[in-house]
Write a structure and sequence with these properties.
- β6 and β7 form a beta hairpin.
- A 4-stranded antiparallel β-sheet has the order 1-2-3-4, with no helix packed on it.
- α1 packs antiparallel against α2.
- The chain is elongated and about 60 Å long.
- It is built from 3 helices and 8 strands; from the N terminus they run βααββββββαβ.
- By secondary structure, the protein is of the alpha+beta class.
C-alpha cells in the first residue's frame, strides 16, 4: 500500500489560525475562561481535521482517511473519471487549490487534494488505464 501525499492549504490554515489565536489571546487577557475553552476546542478541531486526512493506494482500492478512520474506500476499477475542480464542497481535501474530484459507479464522487496530481494520476492509470483524466 502506497501513501499519497496530501496537499494542505497553508495560506487558509494560517488565516484561520491567526483568527482563532487572536480570539484566544483576547480571551486570556480578559480572563474569559469560556472563550479560552471554546477557542482551544475550535483550534484543536481545525488542526485535527486538516492533519488527519490521508490517502492510500493499493492495486485495488483508493483509501481515504479522515479523523484517523477510513472515510471512503473506492474501487479503482470502478473509477471512470478524475478531474481537477474548484468545488468548495466539504470534503477530505485540506486545500482549496489542487482539488481533484473522483467519479465512480454512476453518480458517486469524492473530492480530494493529492499533493502531486501528475504522480497520483499516473499511479492510478497504471491500475485502471480506462480512467478519463481532465
Amino acid at each position: 500500500m502506497r501513501n499519497i501525499p496530501t496537499k494542505i492549504g497553508w495560506i487558509e490554515y494560517f488565516i484561520i489560525s491567526v483568527i482563532f489565536l487572536t480570539i484566544l489571546i483576547d480571551s486570556f487577557l480578559e480572563k474569559d475562561w469560556i472563550g479560552i475553552v471554546i477557542g482551544l476546542f475550535v483550534f484543536l478541531f481545525i488542526n485535527m481535521t486538516l492533519f488527519s486526512i490521508r490517502y492510500k493506494l493499493d492495486n485495488e482500492f483508493l483509501y481515504i482517511y479522515s479523523y484517523f478512520r477510513l472515510y471512503k474506500k473506492v474501487e479503482i476499477r470502478r473509477i471512470y473519471k478524475i478531474e481537477k475542480t474548484w468545488n468548495l464542497i466539504s470534503s477530505p481535501a485540506p486545500s482549496l487549490s489542487g482539488r481533484v474530484e473522483i467519479y465512480w459507479s454512476g453518480y458517486n464522487s469524492v473530492v480530494i487534494s493529492p499533493k502531486y496530481f501528475d504522480k497520483f494520476s499516473s499511479d492510478i492509470l497504471k491500475i485502471n488505464p480506462s480512467i478519463e483524466i481532465k
